Amino acid sequence: MMAVGSSGSPTHWRRKRVREPCKKLVFYFHDIIYNGHNSKNATSAIVGSPAWGNRTILAGQNHFGDLVVFDDPITLDNNLHSAAVGRAQGFYIYDKKEIFTAWLGFSFVFNSTEHKGSINFAGADPLMNKTRDISVIGGTGDFFMTRGVATLSTDAFEGEVYFRLRADINLFECW
Amino acid sequence: MMAVGSSGSPTHWRRKRVREPCKKLVFYFHDIIYNGHNSKNATSAIVGSPAWGNRTILAGQNHFGDLVVFDDPITLDNNLHSAAVGRAQGFYIYDKKEIFTAWLGFSFVFNSTEHKGSINFAGADPLMNKTRDISVIGGTGDFFMTRGVATLSTDAFEGEVYFRLRADINLFECW
Amino acid sequence: MMAVGSSGSPTHWRRKRVREPCKKLVFYFHDIIYNGHNSKNATSAIVGSPAWGNRTILAGQNHFGDLVVFDDPITLDNNLHSAAVGRAQGFYIYDKKEIFTAWLGFSFVFNSTEHKGSINFAGADPLMNKTRDISVIGGTGDFFMTRGVATLSTDAFEGEVYFRLRADINLFECW
Lengths: 175, 175, 175
Known about the structure:
The structure is a homotrimer. By secondary structure, chain A is mostly beta strands. Chain A has no helices and eleven strands. Chains A, B, C: InterPro entries: Allene_oxi_cyc_Dirigent, Dirigent.
């Protein structure tokens, strides 16, 4: 809500805005980490690690320092084998020794009849929490200049190889 | 365009905004990747790689997993030897096995009579496309609080060592 | 300030906005880099380095190419031993050969009675400058959708192991 001067002209827009999303989207993405034995199926790989780690096995101390690059399929439902509607591309870095936590920088890249363009994300992912919020920091194409918040949740995982994330994307700036 | 209530006061700004840039800028930047033989001229270097790669030669599978840090000169024209007007500083990560694609996080840093301050970028760069859009996620100094979209195109390249990028920056939020 | 049409309705918001912060915050954070001998106290570690470097000692050429992951305590004053009010989590990459400069991507993560939520940052940090500005690119929780500028300054350092940063956060978009 903007402040409006007595002359009827808005003076600035420091005030509260409406917290109702202008667009809501839900997707799943599927991360299969390379572990030395799954090069065919892997969608991600460790590319940086601390001095005490390596790039094939996630490091001790809750993987602190492991940097993982990913190109994960995005699906509309929680089935890894559903048709991919886009790709989740970017990286995460495990960044805490005492518990699993990561910092994420990535994009959802779409090139389908449904969506063309990208949504860019960044933020902290305390991944042991049932849900956690990261920022939508921008977008292109159908998502030109968008901003918002994405709520991530771990929908499923198998050992330390397969992770399925659900992303509830709520956009609050739509152009 | 904002919704305006019958009282004449704007109620919120969920609606479409003007898509005309408040500022347009065009720059070139020049990336010379360290390959073991060009330490004097190199402006970037591989600092992370997958288990099957190393930090001197870009990895197979379309360089998937290679993390490159750069400090590239920015020029006003497409000549590497023109006076630099700033530096492009940050990183990219090749993030797809089947084709060249990268994720970028970087800044244009200016400290000249023309421009002082920085423009910050993030996004997916499907670099085989003639043009690709990334997000301007913020700025400082002359570019305080800016947002927008930058269209990148590969203006030239030589082998896997020299890449010249053109950046058409369109800012849609200027303070 | 928005342009207002003769009809009294705002036409768009391309024009200058008020540069007065809607929120001001000051914090300190404390980075203790792992150096092979301080695994108990270290809050950060080198996880990527150029071909000529390693992950225990910061590389020559002003650490160019070193990627550091951190999970640093945030305090209200400049005392490392004060109670932490949150964690600064993310990474920095030294990205220039001739002088110390880094690119930062990180979050302040709060979970106290005072603040719940996160503030996300990105930008270039020419760390030899007394002060340098980076972008607040988004936020969650108490900092939902925020944007702004953070001014960093090096409050103290000891050798190449301990760095204390002061962050003056000025938010210009508050929801």
